[in-house]
Amino acid sequence: MSHPSTGDRRRAGWPGRAGWPRHPRWPGRLGLALVGGALGVLCAATPATAHAADAPDGTNYRTAITGLRPEVPGLSVRVVEGGARLELENRSGRTIEVLGYAGEPYLEIRPDGVYENTASPATYLNRTLAGNTALPAGADPARPPSWRRVGTGPVVRWHDQRTRWLEEAPPAAVAADPGRSHRVRDWVVPLRDGLRPIELRGTLDWLPPPDPLPWWSASLLGALAIGALGLLPRASRPGRRATVALAVLAGIGGVAALGFALARGADAGPGGMLLGLVTGELWPTLTGLAALSAGAYALTRRPAGDFALALAGTCLALFTGVTNAAVFLRSVLPLPWPATSARILIAVAIAVGGGLAAAGALRLRTAGRSSGTPRATAPGTSHAAAAGTAHAAAAGTAHAAAGAGRSPARRWSVGLTADERDAGSSLRHTDEPASSG
């Protein structure tokens, strides 16, 4: 009775020695599918979608609100997106107006929603952060207001040029001594509650930028340390531990990327945070998910895990770390959290991403060198026949070598005279048996 070979049992899906398959296939396939899907969307996306919201990556000018005068119960205003916008929430039950740059009605925040005046030049100038939108012919602050509803809730956000520094060149005091903090100006945005004027007051200050050298140094040193794990042989015990460490680090890098993406949308609340993951912060979101998926796939210890780690690490370092490295150069960031936390997240993304890329590349290079190419056999020759031929050839070679090692047999010859040769010849003829007819 013939028994199936080991290869047949493995192809048929037979369990291993412990009674279960040695390598479950579904985690690897799931991880590879997630990596491929995430990275495929990355390739289709463009870096311009990384910051779809009209907010800067950072600035050295700090906009702050000092208060409302007079105070209005139910009315609150705050600075969001690193000073790029103001947010006003009206829970007073009355209509609050925001006046434009010429004193004309610009916005009305009513209990039933937000309305903008299409005749106000501020309606168009405030659509972008730079404030360079071309004005239509009907934009005239002297015209009667023409209201258009733009929101259903009593909350509005808008750019306001009175609260920011718009010039490319810094103020004279800042240019003279950029290493110190400076008060640039005090600003006022006029509001109106019915016929009662309200002043929203605030300040604009220059904060010196941080030193980027320590952050870049920590990021690069971390990448080198993580990349050194790729020098350990993959099949060795330290190499298997390094695989687990790289998978865990990939998870940490993915969490850092997602944390930064969530922080960028935290000003808008929980709903805005989730929406920001797929709009303004699509790039860090996808690279974070790719890193998490690559880490999960690497835990299956399949050879393709090294490639997944290298590819996900490269995307993490470039599209989350390097593209947001402005946090190392700016003192004010568009986050509701301390700026140091954002710098830590980006440093982790660069270190982990660069380290995973280096470690994966080293392992792939080592695997390519160690894999040898088998000898080609004649067409139609089975592997068993080829092996038998090789074994016979080796045995023959060994036998020939053994024979060559022995001394050749010595041959002896004796010289005979002509009479002795004739006598010997006759003697041979006499000894031969007679044949009967």
Protein model, in words:
With 437 residues, this protein is of the alpha+beta class. 44% of the residues lie in helices and 16% in strands. It has helices at residues 6-11, 25-44, 122-125, 172-176, 213-227, 237-264, 269-278, 282-298, 304-321, 339-370, 383-405, 418-431, and strands at residues 61-69, 75-80, 85-90, 96-99, 105-110, 113-117, 147-151, 155-158, 182-193, 196-206. The strands form 2 sheets. It has a 7-stranded antiparallel beta sheet with strand order 1-10-9-4-5-6-7, with no helix packed on it. A 3-stranded antiparallel beta sheet has the order 2-3-8, with no helix packed on it. Strand 2 (75-80) and strand 3 form a beta hairpin. Helix 6 (237-264) packs across helix 7, helix 6 (237-264) packs antiparallel against helix 10 (339-370) and helix 8 (282-298) packs antiparallel against helix 9 (304-321). The longest helix has 32 residues, at 339-370. It is elongated and about 80 Å long.
Low-confidence blocks of residues? 9-24, 38-53, 375-387, 389-394, 397-405, 425-437
What is the overall number of helices?
12
Give a short account of the largest sheet: 7 strands, antiparallel
**SSE topology string:** HHEEEEEEHEEHEEHHHHHHHH
Rg result: 41 Å
Indicate the overall shape: elongated
The largest sheet has its strands arranged as 1-10-9-4-5-6-7
Q: What's the total count of β strands?
A: 10
Class from secondary-structure proportions: alpha+beta
Fraction of helical residues: 40-55%
Strand content: 15-25%
Question: What are the SSEs and their pairings?
Answer:
Blueprint: H1 6-11, H2 25-44, E1 61-69, E2 75-80, E3 85-90, E4 96-99, E5 105-110, E6 113-117, H3 122-125, E7 147-151, E8 155-158, H4 172-176, E9 182-193, E10 196-206, H5 213-227, H6 237-264, H7 269-278, H8 282-298, H9 304-321, H10 339-370, H11 383-405, H12 418-431
Antiparallel strand pairs: 1-10, 2-3, 3-8, 4-5, 4-9, 5-6, 6-7, 9-10
Helix pairs in contact: 2-8, 5-10, 6-7, 6-8, 6-9, 6-10, 8-9, 9-10
